[in-house]
Amino acid sequence: MKPALITLLLAITAAAMVYRVSTATAEDQRPPPASQPSKPIPPEIAKKLIPDDRNRVALTDDEWKTILTEQQFYVLRKHGTEYSFRNEYHDHKADGSYACRGCGQELFDSKEKYDSGTGWPSFWKPRSEGVIGESVDHDLGYARTEVHCSRCDGHQGHVFKDGPPPTGLRYCINSAALKFIPR
Ligand SMILES: [Zn+2]
């Protein structure tokens, strides 16, 4: 290859690298999304969100899609994970409780929220006993404990054993699965 051609190729490679770095930086500096939009709840679905005598609600995927945004549906119903740091509640410090975005059951409380440094809202325990259900998933190739709302089975996140005292637990939760209720 001619030296001039090699120089040109090197210049193109360098330009591509600079472009990649600058676009990555631009993405990282995007502000976290503002308050998540809430869709209106049609009366026939509102009726189905009243828990039965076993504290359960069951909607079809189409019904969930009517009342959840695409991101909320992806997290709650398809076990999705949102971006760290670029989510509504990771740095949210107001006093109140956090309810399930799907069915409204109160799951966590600001008194048990802490900064885990992960970029996701983190709690060292659920708000009360029985509101969080657990299962084991192998989505990343190893066993993790998945956590979900016990009323509607909406996926919330995972629980790990590297949290602060007194429980030593870290409930790593998706903001899109929560709705904050100020006290
Ligand atoms: Zn729920």
Summarize the structure in words.
With 183 residues, the chain is α+β, with helices and mostly antiparallel strands. It contains four helices and nine strands. It has two domains: 1-30; 32-182, Peptide methionine sulfoxide reductase (Metal Binding Protein, Guanine Nucleotide Exchange Factor, Chain A), CATH 2.170.150. A six-stranded antiparallel sheet has the order 3-4-8-7-6-5. A three-stranded antiparallel sheet has the order 2-1-9, with no helix packed on it. The termini are far apart. Zinc ion is lined by residues 100, 102-103, 105, 149, 151-152, 154.
What percentage of residues falls in helices of 4 or more residues? 25-40%
Shape: globular
Low-confidence region ranges: 16-29
Mean pLDDT level: 87
What is the chain-wise order of helices and strands?
A: HHHHEEEEEEEEE
At the fold tier of CATH, the topology name of the largest domain is Metal Binding Protein, Guanine Nucleotide Exchange Factor, Chain A
Please work out how many helical segments DSSP would assign: 4
Give me the CATH superfamily of the largest domain: Peptide methionine sulfoxide reductase
What's the helix and strand layout?
Blueprint: H1 3-28, H2 43-48, H3 61-67, H4 70-78, E1 96-100, E2 106-109, E3 113-114, E4 122-123, E5 132-137, E6 144-149, E7 155-160, E8 170-173, E9 178-182
Antiparallel strand pairs: 1-2, 1-9, 3-4, 4-8, 5-6, 6-7, 7-8
Zinc ion is lined by residues 100, 102-103, 105, 149, 151-152, 154.
